[in-house]
Structures are given as structure tokens and as C-alpha cells.
Amino acid sequence: MNSKHVVTIAGFAEEVGRDISSRHRSGFDEGRESAYEAGRVAGRQGAIHALTAARFGPETADHVVEATRSMSYEPEPIVGIGNAGRIGICVLTCSTAEELLARVREVKEEEAKRDRELRTLFSG
């Protein structure tokens, strides 16, 4: 047998150990980022719910959070305000729960329209 192909148990363990450690660290980092983002989204939803409940009651707050659950909350680079800010402004400026829910639907439709436009722009 060629000496280049001889693998010692210690050498194998060291090599595999480095690989496992690297994969573990990568998985840990991905999990931490995922948990952090989930916490940020939950915090925004909690803030929207509390603000809406204080103004329009818990039932309306539940409807608003449910309607906005699939929305992105990241601020837009150009405008600088995200959907959470838009919803907060709606809560503060709308007079009735019905008006608020209608405005939330408009914000959601505006987001979907921006997404379509961006997909078209970047897909060629």
C-alpha cells in the first residue's frame, strides 16, 4: 500500500473533527440569525397589536396582525419606512376600525404591487 493513502485514526479524527466543528458553527450561526429575525418580526407584530388594541380593541388588533402576518417589515431603502411604520401611521390616523382594516389592505396591496414590479425589473 502506498504511504500517501495510509490514514491514521488520529489524523482521520482530526480532519473529521475540524469539518464537524465548522459545520456546527455554520449551523449555529444560521439558527441564531433565524431566531433573531423571528424575534424581530414577533416584536413588530406585538407592537402593532398593542397599538391597534389600545385604539380599536383586541378584535380589530387580531384582524390587523393576521392581515399583515405575511408582509415584509423591512424598511425600504429609498423611502426609509417599512410596512410596520405604515401600519402604525394607519392606526394613528384612521377614525374607525373599518377604515383601518381597509387601509391595511391597501398597504398590503401596495407591497404586492412593489414586489411584482421588482420581480419584473430584476427578471429581465
SSE topology:
Layout lengths: L8 H48 L1 H11 L14 H11 L3 H27 L1
Helix pairs in contact: 1-2, 1-3, 2-4, 3-4
Give an account of the 3D structure:
Helices cover 78% and strands 0% of the residues. It contains 4 helices and no strands. The termini are far apart.
Helix segment tally: 4
Succession of helices and strands: HHHH
**Distance N to C terminus:** 57 Å
Helix content: over 70%
Observed structural traits:
124 residues, 4 helices, mainly alpha, 78% helix
Short description:
This protein is mainly α and 124 residues long.
